[in-house]
Amino acid sequence: MVANGVMKSILVVDDEVGARESLKMILKGEYQVALAKNAEEALRQVHAQIPDVVLLDLILPDMDGLRVLEKLKQTLPDQIVIMITATKTVKTAVEAMKLGAYDYITKPFDVDELRLIVNRALSTKALKEENQRLWMEVDRNFGFDNIVGKSKGMKEIFKLVKQVAETRSTVLIMGESGTGKELISKAIHYHSPRKNHPFVTINCAAIPETLIESELFGHEKGAFTNAIEKKLGRFEVAHQGTLFLDEIGELSLMTQAKILRFLEEKEFNRVGGSKTIKVDVRLITATNKDLPQLTKKGQFREDLYYRINVVPIILPPLRERQEDIPLLIDHFIKKFSEENQKNVKGINKEASELMMSYEWPGNVRELENLIERVMALTNNECIQAEELPLPVVNQSKTNGLRESVLSGQISFSKAEEEFEREIIMDALRRAHFVQSHAAEILGISRRILKYKMDKLGIQQQERAKPFS
Ligand SMILES: Nc1ncnc2c1ncn2[C@@H]1O[C@H](COP(=O)(O)OP(=O)(O)OP(=O)(O)O)[C@@H](O)[C@H]1O
Ligand SMILES: [Mg+2]
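^ thats the input. predicted complex w/ adenosine-5'-triphosphate below
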């Protein structure tokens, strides 16, 4: 493996000369290989020049392999160590993994397996380093350690957030559901001079129309039937800080008018009150609606739209920034590993490719939920393609089909047939192979389903297959 024109380095530590030499033979074409025959030599070499990977025999003449591992990890906690074991010492290899070894291989070596493990270790390392580097970069610039992204679109957003954080301009964040609107609004607040004052959120869609005015502006005692106490509104609570008005497209025209007044005059009255209240609040709003469209339809005030749209931030959907997907996967694996004390290290190539080609209609939130779910269920250290939910797997099947037609590998009618088969099989699985339910899911009659199954050669015995 070569990165930035430099061959990656591997240190092989084994007391058997045969094992050392055969490992060198296998690896030397792709990597720079150094050899050590005992623990002392190994530690000396590592400290002289840190290798990318250490292949470490469990049994060494001068020190137990586990001790060597511990010593290495004490000084170099991120060092990748892969243990070499004989079949009878596999149990100890598992011990070693608890001490922080990346993986183990058993003697005699399976060449493909060895290459695979080393490659995977190096890719995981590269990704971690890239994430760390990006974090440091972002952190140096903005201190956003929980926001991941290296795509051009996200880099521009980071820049914009930094610029806008220093001002008190009103910001409108737009983007599909789950693209990170709330996360960005917090980043703006916590990087602004207002960061030591409150960040107050209100979700306009979650509050009934009759209560929203009092929620925003507060009310005086006795203002309406249930107003037994005076209540401060969110604008007042957010004094000197930031108010995040989420889903602003859901507000009624009447409430829109009140917010407009606040933006123009920086003051308001509590419901049922005559006293004018002045506050210093920075407003950030967000929506996944098309506000210009709503203004055309008369559902959103044009003057308010211009007032809140002083600085627009448009978050691109995840399908338009595929290069962020591996970083996000790594980020969430790390997050849920820590939260749930799971030892998941990564995701295999096939699974990663499926996730890269998936459309992510629910954007980052969907990806986050998927990783959480898969990690809760898996016993593997490396997430496998089979563990991904059907929509992710199937969509890329469909993409594959499209490619095959466009590149002339299969005919259009064959693709149509395949597509029909996929959908019918999915519906049958979802219906636990009860045909009448499957027909209902597909919105066709049972007779037509039966006809199509016969035509496609889908047999009744599929029923015996487990639901997946
Ligand atoms: N770039 C990112 N890096 C890390 N996590 C992210 C990123 N973008 C979004 N997330 C995470 O994805 C989830 C959804 O983000 P958020 O709630 O900010 O989206 P939203 O645009 O407000 O969604 P909605 O429109 O549905 O309210 C959150 O858990 C958030 O932390
Ligand atoms: Mg949101």
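The chain has 19 helices and 18 strands.
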